[in-house]
Amino acid sequence: MQAILLSREEVAQRAKQLYASSIREKVETEENIGKMVIIDIETGDYEVDKTGLKASRNLSNKHPNARLFGIRIGYNVAVSFGGVMERVHK
User: What's the CA gap between 68 and 42, in Å, rounded?
Assistant: First the structure.
């Protein structure tokens, strides 16, 4: 399989589209709010865990060289360094 070269913006856009169209409805539950969902933008596979590290490792083991993108469930940003994380879905 030939690698498709995508910019960071294109990776983010594809991940956000996958999240909005098919993943959000499955993972955005009260017990998952604040956890990370890691998405393989090529296959649409995803995993959820508290920090995203275990999910990233699991997806990388399944799909070496996967293009992964993380989204914090229910929030407008994945991490904040001195800023504010706003809850967007309740």
Answer: 9
32-69 residue pLDDT tens: 999 999 999 999 999 999 999 999 999 999 999 899 99
pLDDT the model gives residue 88: 72
CA pair distance 73, 90, nearest whole angstrom: 10
C-alpha pair distances (Å), 90 with each of 41, 54, 63, 70, 71: 25, 25, 32, 19, 16
Please, are residues 28 and 73 in contact by the beta-carbon 8 Å criterion? yes
Amino acid at 50: K
Judge residue 8's burial from the number of C-beta atoms within 10 Å of its C-beta, 0-12 exposed, 13-18 middle, 19 or more buried. Answer: exposed
**3-state SS assignment for residue 36:** strand
Residue 22 amino acid letter = S
State percent of the chain over pLDDT 90.
Answer: 70
